[in-house]
Amino acid sequence: MRHVISLLVENKVGVLARITGLISGRGFNIDSLAVGETENPALSRMTIVVRGDDAILEQVRKQLGKIIDIIKVIDFTDEEFVERDLMLLKVNVPAGKRGEIIEIVEIFRGKIIDVSQKDLVIELAGAEEKLEAMVNLLRPYGIKELVRTGSIAIGRGTK
């Protein structure tokens, strides 16, 4: 089962290593990991996506709660939440195909953020499936580079 976990942590050296060590030590592979400052510069938000058994993941959540630098642990598995990935993609532009590529980008509501004679750099944010669909459509043109942030998530409504 896929689990999206959000951690509010103190912005200190070594916190990321302790958390990833705990998760990998339990045999989970981290599918995605995103870390960034919050509205409070003393705190960071980590969004971790893992796949695994519910019972073992419950033990991991409990142990995460014991790490002193972790303020809050949220497992979005049974919650309503908004999730997004960000991708930058450099695609080859074959002669006469620029218009086709621009049309694909517009359909996906992406942005062209850099242009040269031989390639385009595209920015796309959205659900993982949306990003994968655009990659599959652009693959025949020749993808030169691709980078992704991994998932970030936030709960819906007020709690």
UniProtKB/TrEMBL annotation:
One of its GO terms (cellular component) is cytosol. GO terms for molecular function: acetolactate synthase activity; acetolactate synthase regulator activity. It comes from the Bacteria. InterPro entries: Acetalactate_synth_ssu, Acetolactate_synth/TF_NikR_C, Acetolactate_synth_ssu_C, ACT-like_dom_sf, ACT_dom, AHAS_ACT, AHAS_small-like_ACT. The keyword Ubl conjugation does not apply. Residues 4-78 form the ACT domain. It catalyses: 2 pyruvate + H(+) = (2S)-2-acetolactate + CO2. Pathway: Amino-acid biosynthesis; L-isoleucine biosynthesis; L-isoleucine from 2-oxobutanoate: step 1/4; Amino-acid biosynthesis; L-valine biosynthesis; L-valine from pyruvate: step 1/4. GO terms for biological process: isoleucine biosynthetic process; L-valine biosynthetic process. The keyword Phosphoprotein does not apply. Its EC number is 2.2.1.6. Keywords: Amino-acid biosynthesis, Branched-chain amino acid biosynthesis, Transferase. It holds the Pfam family ACT_AHAS_ss. It is an enzyme of class 2 (transferase). Dimer of large and small chains. Catalyzes the conversion of 2 pyruvate molecules into acetolactate in the first common step of the biosynthetic pathway of the branched-amino acids such as leucine, isoleucine, and valine. Belongs to the acetolactate synthase small subunit family. This is Acetolactate synthase small subunit. It comes from Candidatus Brocadia sapporoensis.
